[in-house]
Design brief:
This protein has seven helices and no strands. It is an all-alpha fold and 168 residues long. The relative contact order is 0.09.
Length: 168
């Protein structure tokens, strides 16, 4: 499959990847990220794909495997992420409140450090709740670019969160 054929089928392939990921239990936003990663991997092997059917099957397979990987990572993280819901000790509550304030400040700084286009796309998606098509229309860019920028912004934030966790 040449690059022109890939580009013409990209929308269909991406939709199949999202559907596959959702079918196996990924939430909508994570399914979008998984589809983005699937499209990147498909692009890398594009010259080796013979037919449209093989491309669709490969997209579904890659998305399925990436979803399984994501579910495994989430399963490993779950016990660490649990936070006690109640504390009778007021000192503990004050510490928790202070930690939350520090976390909020840290997150605001990380968001401010994002490139402006990534921040804008992330804001439109997460705060205003727009879909990729609406964001693309509002910013005058292609939908693929929106998905890429959104994925990059999320990935940057995730990397910073992981760095911060390791330091704690």
């Amino acid at each position: 499959m040449d690059s022109q054929a890939y580009i013409s089928q990209a929308t269909t392939l991406r939709q199949k990847a999202v559907e596959s990921s959702r079918r196996y239990g990924a939430p909508a936003e994570e399914a979008e990220d998984i589809a983005q990663e699937t499209m990147i991997r498909l692009w890398q092997v594009c010259p080796k794909i013979d037919t449209r059917q093989k491309a669709e099957a490969l997209a579904v397979c890659i998305a399925h495997n990436l979803t399984i990987d994501w579910l495994r990572r989430e399963k490993r993280r779950a016990p660490q992420d649990e936070i006690p819901t109640e504390s009778s000790d007021s000192h503990c509550q004050a510490d928790t409140h202070l930690e939350e304030q520090e976390t909020d400040e840290w997150l605001r700084k990380q968001l401010a450090d994002l490139p402006s286009t990534e921040y804008t796309v992330l804001h439109l998606r997460q705060v205003e709740g727009l879909d990729n098509q609406a964001i693309a229309q509002r910013l005058g860019i292609e939908e693929r670019s929106v998905a890429t920028l959104l994925s990059r912004a999320r990935r940057r934030l995730l990397e910073e969160i992981r760095k911060r966790r390791k330091q704690s």
